[in-house]
Amino acid sequence: MFRRRATFRLYFLGALTLLALAVVTAKLWYVQILKGDEYRMRLNLRSQVTVRIPAVRGEICDRNGIPLVQNRPSFDVDFYLPSTVRAYKQINGRVPQTTYRATVYNMAKDLSEDDVVTVVKESIIPRLEDLGLAQDFNARKLQLHYRHNVEVPFRYRRDLDFDTMARFSENNLLLPGVTVSMNPVRYYVYGALAAHLLGYVGVPREINREEAAKFTYYQPDMEGKSQIELYANNWLKGTPGVRTLQRNVKGATEGEVAFTPPKVGDNVHLTIDARIQYIAEKALRSVTRAAAVVVNPNNGDILAMASVPSFDPNKFIPVISGKDWANLIKDTTDPLTNRALGAYAPGSTYKIVTSLAGLHAGIGQKKFTCTGGVQYGNKYMQCWVTQKHMKPHGTLNLVDALKVSCNAFFYQYGNAAGIEQIDTVGNMLGLGQKSGVPLSGESAGILPSPEWLKKISPTERWSGGYTANVSIGQGFVLASPLQMALVTAAVANGGTAYYPRLIDRIVSPDGHLVFQEPPKVRSNLLEDGKITENDFQLVRKGMWSVVNASGGSGSRARISGAVVAGKTGTAQFWRSGVKDNRVWFVAFAPFDKPKYAVCVMVEGAKSGGGVAAPIVGNILQNIINMENGQVPKLTVLPPASGSFSQVDSVSYAQNVAVTRNTDPENNEIVDEETADTAAPPDSRAVERRQEPSPRPDVSDEADAAGRVRNRPKNKPGFGKLFDFLQRQPKKSNP
Questions:
Q1: Over the stretch 611-639, which tens digit does the pLDDT of each residue have?
Q2: Residue 451: its pLDDT value, please?
Q3: Do 60 and 195 contact (CB within 8 A), yes or no?
Q4: Cα(662)–Cα(665) distance, rounded to whole angstroms?
Q5: What is the model's pLDDT at position 665?
Q6: Distance from the CA of 109 to the CA of which of 207, 358, 504, 634 falls in 20 to 30 A?
Q7: SS in 3 state form for 315-342?
Q8: Residues 570, 631 contacting (CB under 8 angstroms)
Q9: pTM to 2 decimal places
């Protein structure tokens, strides 16, 4: 009996053992065989490091494919602060803390956080100092970065030169959280050329935290901050890549296990012709505050848009120093402002608009008599001949009135047409409204009317004097150089007003067309304005006379190889009590088959005929020369500097500008078209300038807590011996 029970127990225990072994075997089979791949993947994921690689931005080119903006490598040193803090804690057991004051539920409260400045100064900086690679930094910014942008590495050093990069690589720092990376940054090929169009880039103000959480190390893309870089950002930005690294149980990186390269963004081709842009910018440097616009009158393409003074966008890459940024924004000549988009009193160039309004009203053939001025109410509005003590112009037709720029004629002509007709034609030409060009800071200008006056001054009534003032481009009227270039283009091509085009096409890296917007017509003056072809030619003939007929005020715009037609303008302006006129010249060429319409506006000059016209002539002459094989060699342009010197005249000797200046405090400059100054601009028509430029990435000055002290490196023995020999005094000759 006893023996039978013992045998049963043995069998029972054996069965239990076999069952347990079967369960363990089954579990091992389940884990190792059935779920093996899944568990291996989980293990790999826990030991892998993912690094986001910034996307490479596409290029910005001119209409002919000449690159204006490209990319270059920048070698940077980054601190991945969470890794640094984690390693510090493993070694020291705890992380030092610091407190800061914050608002929680609308109440001030002291909060505690890791003192990352102390961590960095104790665990990283000493090693860099030993190697002579440390650099002063802003400790406050480092702590704020850890508090608010922990997902993004703190960029400790930027744009290392080759020697410094080699020393970092040679010493293989192996410091926790410290990496040396190569990042693509922008390179503006020709320096300040087209800077006001291209804009600049910078680090995003806000990081996509959801995206950043997917990576161990996150490197953000650069984004456009202004102008074309901003407007075309979605085309240019490209697609980021990913690098996956294997990390062993000790946390050391063993190698790369996967790599997805970043994809280059699309290339943006502008309508700008880099050669014409270069010509315009070189011509403008004969003065110090000015703008120039060149458009194709047959489709509205902007071939050049220049503004001086200017800046070099390369200064913003990778970041601009605090000193350089302060100098730019404190410069009273406004180098960041694109004057081609600002709104100014256009002076007598506006007589083109008034002339077209008269044609629309059916009075193009009427004559008016200049007796030296016209009385409106209690104000006698003089013609410029009266102020210069010359005899009146007498009876004139429209062509001759444009040639001699007679204000008395246009006072009467504008009133005979009526302010409503001037407004109608102005609207058809795009005045008083933004053109839609893809640039920030464009001013709409002012197209005055009785309705406009009622809005800004309800108790005031429109009068004939106001219409007379508008007729000569004074008083309330404001227009931009871009708008006046487009007005000129409409006259040049026979009456078609185009919207301006600045972006020609978007092309993928493999050469496929992504997007192209065709030219867009705003209006047709002959069809929409009911102007006959014969009447329209009166304005073209009048502009031809300005340049080519005897007594025309724009004779200094004549060139060889093409016939130019144009119109001068001089508008009165005071800057802090000092006369600072805005002088203009608009033109098109060749006269019979126009290919170029140009507008130049200069601040602080004597007259449109003496200053702006020669600049336009120089631009057109060099364009015609280019067409005949004399192509300008594109070189890097330094920023054009600005000043408040008053310009008397500009001339060109062998294509070199000769500028004659006057004392900037001299109020006695006699204008060529003094009639423009007989009716000063109304104080309610304030020049419109570009809004402040977006703040770029500005490097912070190092503070006291971020000061470092690199230790001098001891040279090898032979180096010491060589230095010793160099220091030995030379023996004097007997």
A1: 999 999 999 999 999 999 999 999 999 99
A2: 95
A3: no
A4: 9
A5: 45
A6: 207
A7: HHCCCEEHHHHHHHHHCCCCCCCCHHHC
A8: no
A9: 0.85
